[in-house]
Amino acid sequence: MTQKNRLPEGGRIDRTRPLGFLFNGRRYTGFAGDTLASALLANDVHFVGRSFKYHRKRGILGSGAEEPNALVQLELGGRTEPNARATQVDLYEGLIASSQNCWPTLEADLGAANSLLSRIYPAGFYYKTFMWPPSFWMTYERFIRRAAGLGRPPREPDPDRYEKAWRHCDVLVVGAGPAGIAAALAAGRSGARVILVDEQAELGGSLLSRKGAIDGAPATHWLDTALGELRSLPEVMVLPRTTAYGYYDHNMIGLIERIGDHRGGSNGGVPRQRLWHVRAKQVVLATGAIERPLVFSDNDRPGILLASAIETYVNRYAVAAGRRGVIVTGNDTGYGAALALAGAGTAVTVVDLRTEPTGPQHETARARGMEILAGHTVARTFGNGRVTGVEVMPMTADGEGVVGSGRRIECDLVGMSGGWSPTVHLYSQSGGKLRYDEALAAFVPGNFRSGQHLAGAVRGSFGLGAALSEGFAAGAAAAEAAGFRAAAAPVPAVEGYEPAPQRMLWVLPSSKPLGHGGKNFVDFQNDVTAADLKLAVREGYRSVEHVKRYTTTGMGTDQGKTSNINALAILSETVGAAIPAVGTTTFRPPYTPVTVGAFASRDLGDLLDPIRRTPTHGWAEKVGAPFENVGQWKRTWYFPKAGETMHAAVNREVKAARTSIGIVDASTLGKIDIQGPDAVKLLNWVYTNAWDNLAIGRSRYGLMLDENGMVFDDGVTTRIGENHYHMTTTTSGAPRVLAWMEEWLQCEWPHYRVFLTSVTEQWATIGVAGPNARKLISELTQDIALEDESFPFMSMKEGHVAGIPARVFRISFTGELSYEINVPTSYGLALWQALMTAGEKYEITPYGTEAMHVLRAEKGYIIVGQDTDGTVTPGDLGMDWIVSKKKPDFLGKRSLARADTRRDDRKHLVGLLTQNPSEAIPEGAQIVGELKPRPPMKMLGHVTSSYYSPNVGRSIALALIEGGRARIGQELHAALPDRNIRVTVTEPRFFDLEGTRVNG
Amino acid sequence: MLLIPCPFCGPRDESEFGCGGEAHIARPTDTDRLSDADWAAYLFMRKNPKGVHLERWVHRLGCRRWFNLARSTVSHEILAVYKMGDPPPASVAGQEARRT
Ligand SMILES: [Zn+2]
C-alpha cells in the first residue's frame, strides 16, 4: 500500500514528480515538495525512532526545527549525517535514512529493557549511578555510549564541498512567513539592499499551513504575488533553505544555506552548503513561534503530534496522518488541526481544557457539529507503540484533578496544543532581554535594541492581521533607519486565525498520581518527565540552570525548543514561585545544529594556513630532504643520503660544519629594516644593551625583554648607514617583534622619527660555516675583502657574491668561522647553487634545522621559545653581561629590580651530562634531586634542549634548573615514566669553550 | 563580531583588529624611583567597568595603525574612535567619568 495517508488533492507537493526513498531498508514513495517526515506520514509510518534514555518508541512530533524525536541517520559512508530532523530533510530521489538509537533494529530494540528498569534512571541518574568508584566510570562509559548514543558520526572523510560568503546589506529579514515577507516588501520597495532568509524550502511560513484569506482571496495568492514582486526587485536577495543560526554583535548574522542537500548524492556538482556572514545595518526578526506540547500520561506514543504539525501535514503536504483523531488543546489554534482533519475526512473529537471555549475556529468547529469535550483532560493514552486510544475525563474546576469516570476514545492520531512560545532564540542571542507575558504564558521580547526590529508571532502577536501590519511597519522602519525613504503600504484585509483566550495547565490531571503508571514527558529528546523535574526540586535544586543540567532537560540537538517553557512552568509551580522569578535559560548559537564542514569550508589541508617556502625549498625537495613546520614556514630538517638514517645524516652534517663547510638556508630568519634619525633610540629601548656607539658596518647581538623583564626575542642587528639598521629576529618571533616595536612607536613615542619595514621575504639568507668558509667565499667575490682586519667578526660588508649583489654578515650561530650571505630573494637559489658547485672540493655539506640546533647547543647558544618560556630573565640565562647597567631605562628594566627576579633560587639555564654518554635525555624530561619510587617528587626543572653531539662525542642537554648555577657538579636525575637517567649539572657550554673557532 | 570604524580605513570586521586593552596608560618616566607596587600597578592594574571603556586597538590586518576607541562593555556599542595621543571626546569622557 503506498501513501495510504495521502489526500487525493491539495497541498504544496508536486504529484507529477514521485520520489523513491529508503527508510530502515524499506522502499517508500513520496512527492517533490515533501519532507522526509511528511513522506513517512503519507505512508503511515509514525514510529521512526527510539528515545534517548528509555528507548521508548517515538514518532514524528512536529513539522519543523522544533522536532525532538524524529532524528534520523541520513545517507551512508562519508556523507552520513546523524541527528537529521526528518521534518527538515527535503525529500529527494534515492534518499536513504535509518532510525537511530536502536540496536539491533528499530522493532527489536534491546535497550527498550531500560524502560522496564526505569526506576534506575531517575533525574540525575548519570550523577548518582556512576559517581563511585571513579575507576568504574570507564566501565560505565562504554555501556552508556553503546546504549545511549544519538546517531553515528561519519568515519570517512566528507566528500562534499562547502563554501563561505560574506555580505553587507541594509536590511536582513529572518523568517519568510507573512510578517517577514511583508517586511521584505516594505524595505525592498524603498530600494534598500534586502536579504530575506527562511529555513524552509518554500517561503510562506504559516501561510502554507493554515487556511486564511488576504484581500478576499486564499492567502497563497497573496504569497505568490508578494514573492513575485520580491524577485523582481534587483536589490532583494531571497535565500530559501537558509537558517539564521547565530546573531552576533553589531548585527552580524550567521546563515547556513543548504544548496545541495536536497539534490542528494553528489549534490549535482554544487557545494553542499554555504556559510554566510552577513553584516546588516538593520535586522528584522520575523521568526514566528513554536507550539508547545501538553504534558499528560504517556504523551509520547507515535501518533501523538503537535496540533499545528497535524494541520501543516494536511494543508501543506496533503497528508492526513490518521483515520480517527483526538485534539487536546487549551486554546483556539488546536481547532485548526481539528478542522483540517475533518476537512480531510478524518473523524475528530476535541478535548478542550477550557470550560467555556471561545474563538473563531472553535465556533466553526461547533457549527460543523464536531464533538467538543469542554473542561476535559486526557488522563492517559493506550497503545503498544502507535497510539490506539485515549482516556478522557472531566476535570475539577481548578484543573487540578479529575471527576467522574473516564471514557475511552479509540483513535490513531492525537494532536496537542499547549499554546505558543515565540521563537526568541535569535533575539535573545543578540542580547535582548525577555519579558514574561502572563496572558500568552510565554516569554516575549522585552526591549528593543538599536538596529533591530521585530514583527509578528516572535513579539507574541499571534494572528495573521498583526503579522502583516507589523511586518510592513518593521520593514519600513528598518529601511528608514538604513537611510531609505519607505512609502506607507496599505495593509491588506485578512480573514484567518486570530487569537482567543487560552487556558494553561502545565501538567494535565489524571486519576493516578504523577509518576505512577504512565510517564508525563516534558522533554522528549532527553526523556525528562514532569516527575523528574519535581524530584529534582525535592532534592534541593531551585535554579533553572541547575535543574536543567541535573535533569538534562532542554539539552540535546533541539535545545528544548518544545520543552523549555513547560519545564520552567512545572518548576515554578513546584517551588511556588512565579515563572519570571524562576528565570529562563540563555539561548546561544546555533539555533539548529550546523555541519562542522561548513565552518571549515575551503580552509582545509594546504588551504588551512599559508605555506611559506624558502628559495631552496625545491632544491631540497629534489634531493629528498624532509621538512619541518616552523610556524607557517617549511624548513629543511636534514639532508639524508641514500639509505641514511636521520641520526646518521645529522651527525654527518654537524661534523662537516666543524671540519670543512656546512651550508644552511636561514632565509626564514625575521628581518626588519629600521630607518630614521631616532632609530638608535628605539634600539636602546627594545634591547637590554647599549647601541649608541655601534659603528656603521658593525653588528651586535641583543636580547629583547617584555615589561615583566622576561626574554621574548633575540637577534643580531647591524648598522647599515647613519640612520639605517638591519634587525634580525627569531623565525617565529618576527611578526611579534615588528608589532611590539610598532605599538611602542605609535602609542608611547609617536614623536620618534623611525620607519619599520618587514623585509623577511625580501632577503634570502644563506649561511656558510666552517674552517673553509672564508676560502670558499673568496673564490666567489671580487669586491669584498675577507681578511680579519677589514672584515672582522660581527661586521657586515656589501658587495657581490657569485655576481649577485649581496650583504655579507660575519656572524655565527655555530661558533665557527661563518658568513651569512643575504641576497634578494629571487637570487637565493642561484647563490645556493653557486656555493654548492664551488664548494664541491671542500665537500660542502648542506645542513638542516636539526644540525643547526645541535651546533648551537654545543656552543650553548639559546633558542628563545625553546630554552626560554616567557618566565626567564637574562640573569636566569647567565646573560647578565648583556644587560646595560648604564642605560637609564629600557623595556623590562624595572622588573629586573624586583625581589622575585633577583632570587638566587630561580631556574637557571645549565648543562646536563648523562652518565651514559650515548643516551640522550628526552626534551621536556623532569629533573629531580631525590628519586622516589613514584610521583610526587620535588621537581627542580626540566630539559629544554637535548641532542647527541658528534663533535663532543656524547649526548648534551640544556635545562632550566632551580638554583642551577649553584648545583654545577651535582648529580641529579631525569625522572621518566619508564626509567630514570642519572645526570651531572655543568656549565651550559660543551664545545670550543675558549671561543676561538669563530676566527677560523 | 564587532564592526570597528578604523579612523584610517573605515568600518571593518573585528577579526582584522587586535585589542591592546585599556587606553591612556602612559609608561612611567622615572621607573628607577618607582616602588614595586607602583610598577605593578602600571603593569597589571586595569579598569573593568560595566559601562564605557576606553581602549586601544590596532588595525592589525589593515593599516597597522593604533587608535583609541570608546566601547560600552554592556551593549558593545562603539561610542567614539579617536587618534592615538588625542584625549577622549568630551561626550565620552563625561560618560566614562560618571561610572566611577
Ligand atoms: Zn585601518
Describe the structure in brief.
With 1000 residues, chain A is α+β, with helices and mostly antiparallel strands.
Question: Can you walk me through this structure?
Answer:
- The complex is a heterodimer of chains A (1000) and B (100).
- By secondary structure, chain A is α+β, with helices and mostly antiparallel strands.
- Helix content of chain A is 22%, strand content 28%.
- Chain A is built from 24 helices and 51 strands.
- In chain A, strands 8, 9, 12, 13, 14, 15 and 28 form a 7-stranded mixed β-sheet that branches.
- The radius of gyration of chain A is 38 Å and the shape is elongated.
- In chain A, 52% of the residues are buried.
- With 100 residues, chain B is of the alpha+beta class.
- Chain B has one domain (3-25, 38-98): 2-Layer Sandwich (Folate-binding fold), CATH 3.30.2270.10.
- Helices cover 18% and strands 33% of the residues of chain B.
- Chain B has helices at 36-44, 90-98, and strands at residues 3-6, 10-13, 18-22, 52-58, 66-72, 78-83.
- In chain B, the strands form 2 sheets. A 4-stranded antiparallel β-sheet of chain B has the order 3-4-5-6. A two-stranded antiparallel sheet of chain B has the order 1-2.
- Chain B starts with a strand and ends with a helix.
- The interface between A and B is medium-sized, with 26 and 26 residues.
- The complex binds zinc ion (ZN).
- Residues 6, 8-9, 59, 62-63, 65 of chain B line the site of zinc ion.
Question: Features of this protein?
Answer:
heterodimer, A: 1000 residues, alpha+beta, Ubiquitin-like (UB roll), FAD/NAD(P)-binding domain, 6 domains, 6-stranded mixed beta sheet, 24 helices, B: 100 residues, two-stranded antiparallel ribbon, 2 helices, globular, binds zinc ion
Question: Which helices and strands appear, and what pairs or packs with what?
Answer:
The complex is a heterodimer of chains A (1000) and B (100).
Chain A: E1 14-23, E2 26-32, H1 36-42, E3 47-50, E4 57-59, E5 71-74, E6 81-85, E7 95-99, H2 113-116, H3 125-129, H4 136-148, E8 162-174, H5 178-189, E9 194-197, H6 206-209, E10 213-214, E11 217-218, H7 219-232, E12 236-239, E13 242-248, E14 252-258, E15 273-285, E16 289-291, E17 304-306, H8 307-317, E18 324-329, H9 334-343, E19 347-352, H10 360-367, E20 371-374, E21 376-382, E22 389-394, E23 407-410, E24 413-417, E25 420-422, H11 425-429, E26 434-437, E27 442-445, E28 452-454, H12 464-481, E29 494-495, E30 521-523, E31 528-529, H13 530-538, H14 544-551, H15 564-575, H16 579-582, H17 596-600, E32 612-613, H18 617-622, E33 627-630, E34 633-636, H19 646-659, E35 662-665, E36 670-675, H20 679-686, E37 699-705, E38 711-721, E39 724-729, H21 734-747, E40 755-758, E41 763-769, H22 773-778, E42 795-801, E43 804-810, E44 818-824, H23 828-838, E45 845-846, H24 849-859, E46 907-914, E47 926-928, E48 939-949, E49 954-962, E50 971-975, E51 980-986
Parallel strand pairs in A: 1-7, 8-9, 8-15, 9-12, 15-28, 17-24, 18-19, 18-24, 19-20, 32-34, 35-45
Antiparallel strand pairs in A: 1-2, 3-4, 5-6, 5-7, 10-11, 10-29, 13-14, 14-15, 16-25, 21-22, 22-23, 26-27, 30-31, 33-34, 35-41, 36-39, 36-40, 37-38, 38-39, 41-44, 42-43, 43-44, 46-49, 46-51, 47-48, 47-50, 48-49, 50-51
Chain B: E1 3-6, E2 10-13, E3 18-22, H1 36-44, E4 52-58, E5 66-72, E6 78-83, H2 90-98
Antiparallel strand pairs in B: 1-2, 3-4, 4-5, 5-6
The structure holds zinc ion (ZN).
Zinc ion binds at residues 6, 8-9, 59, 62-63, 65 of chain B.
